[in-house]
Amino acid sequence: MSEIDSKFQSLREQREGALIAYVTCGDPEPDLTVDIAESLVTGGVDIIELGIPFSDPIADGPTIQAASMRALRRGITPLKVLKTVHNVKEKLGVPTVVLTYFNPVYRLGLKHFCKLASENGVDGMVIPDLPVEEAEEYERIAEANGIDTIFLAAPSTPLKRIGKIVQHTSGFLYLVSTFGVTGVRERLEGPTVKLIQQFLPYVEGRTNLAVGFGISKPQHVKAVIQAGADGAIAGSIFVNTIQRNQANVDKMLKELKKTARQLKAATKCRAK
């Protein structure tokens, strides 16, 4: 059982959902990412997701795009991100996922990238622009290195394709809750609950289901967990906090911890 699966199972036994927090590695400064992760974990985050900054992040909205540009200007690279994962795992011991587009993986070479990722403690990877139909080689290499392959599914994913995606997913299935890109939303769209319930028969007994895109309030988290999801993924709310408090690191870390605590409390609503 992978570290990610083990975390979900432990939380399930406690009748909790997982809180997964995304931040862009290297934003606002490379040396701050471990401190940011520590604040999130202290606040209750169960799984850390670190983004490798990329110049053309097609799935990300303005908030995370801006964070990627800030990190790139400060000299962050894929190899530095993997080293940061090592430092996060060494200090905090939580399951850690890397989100990257396929180009950095391809440029370093699939075998080389996955080997380095494994050596630095990466537990799973999300690659938004790698469809399951083209992922056979990557999936095989990742599995050989003990790395979960986390695929995405969206409201537009045909029902006949969901089973195939689930069959090749490990760790958790990343369910995109809405059309569009990442970003903070005031309310969770009504169809999201129906979407979760539509996916549940496909994932039950096969993998975990985590919901992201637009999750930014405790009521969002509570809604997706009560609908049957195993976890909620929040990103832009944390990235916004980092951007807003670049000049005051102490305030930034306190706000991150507070927000994480509020979102985590909302996961404690799973039915038996």
What is the overall number of helices? 12
The biggest sheet, with number of strands, parallel, antiparallel or mixed sense and barrel status, is:
9 strands, parallel
| β-strand amount | 5-15%
Low-confidence blocks of residues:
179-186
Give a verbal description of the structure:
There is one protein chain. By secondary structure, the chain is α/β, with parallel strands linked by helices. The protein has one domain: Aldolase class I (TIM Barrel, Alpha-Beta Barrel), CATH 3.20.20. Helix content is 49%, strand content 13%. It contains 12 helices and 9 strands. Strands 5-4-3-2-1-9-8-7-6 form a 9-stranded parallel sheet. Helix 7 links the parallel strand 4 and strand 5 (148-150). The longest helix is centred in the C-terminal third of the chain and has 17 residues, at 249-265. Mean pLDDT is 92; it is low at 179-186.
List keywords for this structure.
272 residues; single chain; alpha/beta; TIM Barrel
What is this entry, summarized?
The protein has helices at 3-13, 33-43, 62-73, 78-92, 102-108, 110-119, 136-144, 159-168, 191-203, 218-226, 236-244, 249-265, and strands at 18-24, 47-51, 96-99, 124-126, 148-150, 152-153, 173-176, 209-212, 231-234.
